Amino acid sequence: MRLFAAVLPPPERLDELGCVVDRLRGSPGGGGVRWTSREGWHLTLAFMGEVDEALLPGLRVRLERAASRTPVFPLRLRGGGHFGRRTLWAGVAGDLDTLRLLAERSDAAARRAGIAREEHRRYRAHLTVGRGQGADVGPFLGVLDGFEGGRWEVGELVLVRSELPVSGVRGERPRYETVGSWPLGGGGSGAG
Angle 152-154-156 (CA atoms, 0-180°, nearest 5)? Predict the structure, then answer.
């Protein structure tokens, strides 16, 4: 199964961002961008790729430990940017040091559980909102730059299964399923 560890912003914070993305979608050039769906919006902490199901019990134990050692912390969605000319994202503000720590602990949990990892890269918090399909996403940055969402307390580490589209139908998007979640700062069963 294809897995990643993530932080899921609460629905009301996603709705705030959604209002901005809806404006971008309807603006000139918006049709040249493949917009991600709100249901799939998340902050990836550690992408694990294809994981053998036999490694899942050990991964769960290690992610629970990572969560229990990390305090609850504040975040907000704010601003935006792009990777190259194609990927448009919303930025993150707040306790970024603790967010990076949780990402590092999630990555270490995957390695210790026996999941092959790519070369370690510095964590860069972002939430992907769209990908240009031959279109330059630069013109949308002005709207995202002014965005500032409300604050929330991150209180949970989530393990997500990603199923990529296989039908070939235009516009089909990945599907995400939570397969485990653990409260930050201790406690909980890890049930998903």
Answer: 145
Q: What is the pLDDT of residue 192?
A: 43
Cross-strand partners of 87: 83, 131
| DSSP per-residue codes, 46-82 | EEEEE--GGGHHHHHHHHHHHHHTS--EEEEEEEEEE
Distance CA 51, CA 54 (A): 8
Taking the C-alpha atoms of 49, 54, 58 and 63 in order, what is their torsion angle to the nearest 10 degrees? 30
Residue 64 near residue 190 (C-beta atoms within 8 A): yes
Q: For the chain (length 192 residues), average pLDDT per consecutive 10?
A: 95 96 86 86 94 96 97 96 84 97 96 84 88 74 90 97 68 79 72 44
Q: How many helices (H) and strands (E) does the chain have?
A: 4, 9
> Can you give the pLDDT at residue 28?
82
The whole-model pTM stands at: 0.88
Label residues 135-173 b or e (16+ Cβ within 10 Å = b).
Answer: bebeebeeebeebebeebebebbbbbbbeeeeeeeeeee
Cβ atoms of 150 and 136 within 8 Å: the answer is no
SS3 letters across 170-189: CCCCCEEEEEEEEECCCCCC
